[in-house]
Amino acid sequence: MSPLASVGRGTVMHERHAPARNRFVYGLFMLCLPLSRLDELRLPILGINRFNIFSFQERDHGARDGSPLLPWIRDLLGRHGLAEVADGEVVIQTLPRLFGHVFNPVSFWYCLDRAGELRAVLAEVSNTFGGHHNYLIAHADGRAICDDDVLCARKVFHVSPFFPVRGEYRFRFSQRAGCLGVALDYLDGGMPMLSTRLTLRPRPLDTRALLAVWVRSPMLTLGVVARIHWQALRLCLLKVPFLGAKLQVAPAGKGS
């Protein structure tokens, strides 16, 4: 994960394996922003903690009160014994606000050491009912996370009303051939239920790059919510059982 600001364009794939099969692939783009350098970002169409065509608001993440994100994640890493190994840059990979609107199903915080090695990842998950939960993922001994290492987290937060709150997630992260990859598999009782693949090809963050991705996806953030509800309708038509939703906001934690 480069400590330089970038915008990544790519695809996200979801494949549900049970109780009914359903697969879709959508294009998207995400920002990758080093938290120590937010104040250095000066682009005409990108606002940091202010409105613009594109904007990144610290109040959308972390404590969600507008406070600086870097001290917040440093404190979280310290409380889980990771401060000494994840002592370098922290890069957040997230959807930006477009004209003030955003919904982020998941944002990833890549926590590096001073040599640039990946040591921990915070998966910041949101559902459409207003809930949030943080899964802090790292090896038990704090060693570097290598391409395709499998890291597990127990599911404790309700995302889809078509899945129960049980089972586990298996995460894999990779950076090869100029692409960033996230593979996420959800298993219940050892049985694969859902596979998600996110692939992004980053390029340096500048006005031209932002305009290029905007032309391709001018209504991305509104489209994310619309596509979630469209896929929910498809599952209803497939007669997948609706299990309801827990609307409470889950506390931050490792999720394991």
TrEMBL record:
<dbReference type="Pfam" id="PF07103">
    <property type="entry name" value="DUF1365"/>
</dbReference>
<protein>
    <submittedName>
        <fullName>DUF1365 domain-containing protein</fullName>
    </submittedName>
</protein>
<dbReference type="InterPro" id="IPR010775">
    <property type="entry name" value="DUF1365"/>
</dbReference>
